[in-house]
Structures are given as C-alpha cells and as structure tokens.
Design brief:
- By secondary structure, the chain is mainly α.
- Helices cover 78% and strands 0% of the residues.
- It has helices at 3-28, 32-37, 44-71, 77-103, 110-118, 124-156, 160-208, 212-222, 235-242, 252-259, 266-298, 310-318, 321-355, 363-384, 393-416, 422-453, 469-486, 492-502, 504-515.
- It comes from Helcobacillus massiliensis.
Length: 517
C-alpha cells in the first residue's frame, strides 16, 4: 500500500473511534441536564484532559512548534501565560464554581449561574451572557471547521470544502447525539493522542540527530539565541502574549468542566493532571522544534515544507506511514476537540438561557432541543467557514479575548466578593465585551493602515498594539466593582445565600467527597 493509503487508514480509524465514543455517551444521556452537563459525573482525569484538549486546538500541534522553530523560546511567552492561567483557574475557580453552581439553583450553564447567584429577576444578565456565548462561539466554531479544511489540503492535498465538511460532519455526529459526555470523552482521548504524539515524535527525532548533545550543538549553530526569552521581544509583546492566561477565567467551554466534576475535592487532582498535561505537551513542543532545527541542519538536502508542519514532517520522516497517520490524527484531535466543546456550550446557551428563560421545557424537550441546537449552529458555522480564505488565528484570539474580558472578572467576583450586584455584573460584562471588541478591531485597522501607508498610528512609538484582553479585563473588573458599590447592596437573603455557599456547601461537598468513587 502507498504511504497515503496508510495515513488515510489511520485517520479513518480515528474517526470511527470518535463515533464509537459518541455512541457510548449517547447511551448514557437520558435528559437535557445530562446532555448539557453530564450529570456532574466527571472524574478529575476526564475533566482535566478534556479541558486541556478543548483549549489548545491546533495551536499546540502546529502554531507553537512553528513559532519556536522560527524564533526560539522568545515565542514561548504565550505558553507560559496559558499554563499559569490554567493552573490558577484550577486552583481558585474550579472548587468554588463546582460548589456554588450546585447550591445556586443547581445551575448547569454559566449564564444560569450568574442569574441564580446574583438573583437577577430581570433575566437581563442571563440573556446578555447567553447572547455573548451564542455569537462568539458560532464564529469560533467556524474557525475550527476552516482549520480542518486547511489541514486536509496540507496533509492530503484534497479539496478544502471536502475536508471542512468531513471534520464538521464527524464532530457534529458524535456531539449531537453524545452531548456533553460525548464531547468530554472524545476530548479526553484526543488529549491522550496529542500528548503521545508530542512525546514520541521528539524522542525519535532526538535519537536521529545523535542525542541531546548533538541537538543542542546544531541548534546553537542555527540560532544562538534560541534559549533566550527576551531577544527580539518587546514589553508590549511579552505582556500581550502572557495575558492570554487571563482568558481562562472566562472561557465557558473550559470552566463548564469544573461544574461537571463529581465533587469540589476532585479539583485538587484535576489541577495536578491538567497542569501536568500542559507542561508535558509544551516541553514536547519545545523538544520537537529543537529536534527539527537540528535534523534539517544536519540534512541540508531535505527541507521543511512549512515551519508549522514541523511535527507532521518529522513524524512522516521518522515513523511508518500508519504511525505517521496517527500523528495526523493528533492534529485533527486538537481541532475537533475544540469544536465539539464549543458546540455543546453554544447549544446549552441557546436552549437553557435564551429559549428556556421564556418557555418551561421538560427534560426530554431540553434533550432534543439541545441536539437540534448543535445541528443548527454547526450548519451556520460550516456556512461561515465555506471560504478557504477564512481567518483562523485572528478570530480565535478575538473570541478568546472577548470571553476572557466579558466573563472572567464576573466569574471571579461572583465566587469571592459577596457585594457584587446583578447590575454591576451586567455593566462590567458589557464593558468588557465592548472594549475588547472595539480595541481589537481598532488595532487591526491601525496595523493595516500602517502597513499600507507607512504612517504613524495611534499607538505612538509602540511596534504593536496591546492585546485587547488586557484593557477589556481590567475595565470589566473596575466597572463591575464601582457600579456594584454605587447600586443597592444585595439583601440579607442574598448575603445569607453567599455565606451558605461558602460554609454549608463545603460541608455538603465533604459528604459527597467521602462517598465519591
């Protein structure tokens, strides 16, 4: 058989495995609450790996290795920021959010938690946050589908639209029927595939170049400053890259895993597993970039097709085509895990927080409306992604900043500050979303104008604008606090409810922890 046939077999087996897991989850999904939150039954291992896989997307398998290959560790500030942000998210948000969401009306979505926690009788906060999720994630989903189409063009030389529809169709199939559990179980498996690829490929490549010593020597000849975190960096660039970590506190498709844990105590083990997974993956990426530099320096007759393909090219050189096909599946896993999680969260917002606020739905109605919601959102996302020139990285960065700025401060304040009011939360959320949107669009327009006309921009002497999540997050936090202090304080009942969440829920969690398997 040809190399292409082996690769197609490997990817086909991966697709079948994902469908099989989705069918298994389908059999365990009995109600709308199961479909949207999995019955709060996730183990820390499943929650941690699924959160990591749904977060990293193709950036981990292609974007970061390519950046490190070209410029060195100075491109690693985003990885540092994301790893730090993920650890803080697990430590400070996961245990409290798990307890608070159960006590606050057994909330199964982030908007319903805001509504119940802050006693918003107007439902404006819930509807506004549901709309933010619906709009941002619909476009976010389309970026993942576009990435799938471009991957098939790069890996197999096929048609963009065929690859895009294939990735979208398989992901839709196991997500629509398996719901939250389908997305979570497949994400867990996909996380393991990604980790295996990022450990095996660099190990083989380091052996091929003569070991670690020979690798370091070759890297030093090609790029003496590879190990520097500051060479070629700017202050704004470092802040912007590291600030990606702020986004974790407000990403619905990540923090919903905290809500689905079996108990708050599981967050401790989830922290170890989740952060450990990220660290190992990042170390694997760094080793792959270095091994790639060394290999192509030692073999000048061979060339790298594209810096972002360093993982794929090394896999195809070092491994049997069938095993190389599994590495290709790892890249697909990174893309599809993100799409599936976003589809479920977006469908939940549509059914539970928009339709469900005005219509009383039965458990079975929620279940099937959730599936219909996934289908509708997937169709819209595929329609948006039909253009092969669809942007990916810029849209991902824009949506990440939007969620981080709009939701992040509100999540933290709701968990740790009893004085937060529904009006303050709404004002902060709107401010964060608007500032992130306007700042991001303004910086893109200014950069384009400067590139086209060579004229000075509003950022003065700065070589690049500040990532919009920084001003958006800070202003959301400030506005939420100021408006809450200027408006009527929560009543005794609300304050008592907050104290109950802090104390009584700890006791309740302790009972559950003692009986958790």
């Amino acid at each position: 058989m040809s190399d292409l046939t082996f690769k197609l077999i490997a990817v086909g087996l991966y697709f079948l495995a994902m469908i099989g897991i989705g069918f298994y989850a389908f059999r365990k999904t009995r109600s709308g609450d199961d479909y949207m939150l999995g019955g709060r039954s996730l183990s820390p291992f499943t929650a941690a790996l699924s959160a990591g896989a749904s977060d990293m997307s193709g950036w981990l398998m292609m974007g970061l290795p390519g950046a490190l290959y070209m410029s060195g560790l100075v491109e690693g500030w985003m990885a540092i920021g994301l790893t730090t942000g993920a650890a803080l998210n697990w430590i400070f948000v996961a245990p409290r959010l798990r307890r608070f969401t159960e006590v606050a009306g057994d909330s199964i979505t982030i908007p319903s938690y805001f509504d119940n926690r802050l006693g918003d009788t107007t439902r404006l906060l819930r509807v506004a946050s549901g709309l933010v999720i619906l709009v941002f994630f619909t476009f976010y989903v389309s970026s993942g589908m576009a990435a799938g189409g471009k991957f098939f063009v790069s890996a197999f030389g096929g048609e963009y639209w065929i690859g895009m529809l294939l990735v979208a169709g398989i992901t839709l199939l196991y997500t629509m029927f398996g719901g939250f559990l389908g997305a979570t179980y497949t994400d867990m498996v996909q996380g393991l595939i990604m980790l295996a690829a990022l450990l095996i490929v660099p190990t083989l490549a380091i052996g091929a170049v003569g070991g670690p010593g020979a690798m370091f020597e070759s890297v030093g000849q090609v790029n003496p400053d590879f190990g520097s975190l500051v060479t070629g960096a700017t202050v704004i660039g470092v802040i912007s890259s590291a600030a990606w970590g702020l986004g974790y506190f407000g990403q619905p498709h990540i923090i919903i895993r905290f809500m689905a844990l079996r108990s708050s105590k599981d967050a401790r083990m989830g922290t170890v597993i989740g952060v450990g997974w990220m660290v190992l993956c990042v170390l694997g990426v760094i080793a792959t970039a270095m091994a790639g530099i060394a290999y192509f320096q030692q073999n000048p007759d061979m060339s790298l097709s594209d810096p972002e393909n360093v993982v794929l090219d090394l896999a195809q050189i070092m491994m049997h085509p069938l095993l190389a096909g599994i590495v290709l599946a790892a890249v697909l896993a990174a893309i599809m895990s993100t799409i599936s999680s976003q589809l479920v969260v977006t469908s939940s917002a549509l059914v539970e927080d928009l339709v469900g606020t005005g219509v009383k739905l039965s458990a079975n109605a929620k279940l099937w409306l959730g599936r219909i919601g996934v289908l509708v959102i997937a169709i819209i996302g595929a329609y948006i992604a039909r253009d092969p020139e669809s942007t990916i990285l810029g849209l991902v960065a824009f949506a990440w900043a939007g969620f981080g700025a709009a939701f992040g401060p509100i999540v933290l304040l709701s968990l740790y500050w009893k004085r937060l009011t529904n009006i303050g939360a709404l004002a902060g959320m709107v401010t964060g979303a608007v500032v992130s949107f306007v700042w991001g669009k303004s910086s893109q327009a200014i950069d384009a104008e400067q590139t086209t006309n060579g004229i000075a921009n509003l950022w003065g002497a700065l070589p690049e604008p500040l990532y919009e999540i920084v001003p958006g997050f800070l202003l959301c936090l400030i506005v939420a606090v100021v408006v809450s202090l200027l408006t009527k304080a929560p009543g005794r009942e609300a304050l008592a409810g907050f104290r109950h969440m802090e104390t009584a829920t700890t006791e309740r969690a302790a009972v559950k922890d003692s009986t958790a398997v």
